[in-house]
Amino acid sequence: MPAIDRLFNKMLETGASDLHLSQGQFPKLRLHGEVVALEEFGILEHNVIEPMMSEICDGDRWKKFQEQGDLDYAYAFENKARFRVNFLKQYVGYGAVFRVIPSKILSLEQLGTPPVLLNFTNYHSGLVLMTGPTGSGKSTTLAALIDHINSTSARHILTIEEPIEFVHPFKKSTIVQREVGRDVPSFADALLATSRQDLDVILVGEMRDLETIGLAVTAAETGTLVFGTLHTNSAVKTVDRIIDVFPADQQGAIRMSLAVALRAICAQLLLRRIDVTGRIAAHEILLQTPAVQNSIREGKNHMLTQIIMSSRQLGMQLMDDCINNYLTQGIIDGEQAYLKANDKERFKQHSELGQA
User: How far apart are CA 338 and CA 275, in angstroms?
Assistant: First the structure.
């Protein structure tokens, strides 16, 4: 039995989301957002952490890690769980982070997402963006969206991920899952090939560079439903980020394309609950309307916040309004509200940090 299995079992027993290994330190778990040291497992010296990492990594991948100092892949722990894995070299030695990938894909209803998200699965073309910081549950929500399409309609779906997290079973749709670094060199290379694959739906695990973003927008503009992720905290910042990736002389064209292609943006954050153990997702939602299209096309992204505020009847909502609802319902405390809010002034009276 691999030595690391004891730590994996501890993760699953406690319901931790992440396991952190760092040479010279105790192993640590992330429990409901807090990092907790596992002192009973002892300090991870080099002669402990190296075999712990290498014995769950095949030879080619281990060689790549040794050469490049960084490695991303997915690991199946018996039939109990899958983990998204990152190996890294650092100043003091080796390190690794393991994130639990739930074995069962939860539905949107089970995740407690706003009902309007279900409408995202009815689009037949366009760009739908799920945004938020690392660890905010973007992949889990996207997996639920893809699973709903897979369960209710016969479409041809491609996921491009680094690494593959949720493994989708065959249901009504045909699903192809390609892993960057194993099945294809890059997100852009995978997207370049999609024009020859007769696809209805594409999931792009990360839109991190100009070429990938440009190809994703083009695919969405020309008849494919594209789901993608970005590390932004609001709808306005998401639009800004996409446009700012492009050189100044191309920004007018990408504004026009994005105005046509964009169907929805859902920004997601996880907040620590005080009413029960665990965390809850907060969402900001922007939907395509003529006013949204005009604002993007004319470079008036600052108007998007006002459009969201005046379009609640359509299912749109601001992140801070969602956070405020949780605060008034006693689901989260003032510290969480202040820390996660975009407008700190709105919540500073509820937080000692805001009054410091």
Answer: 18
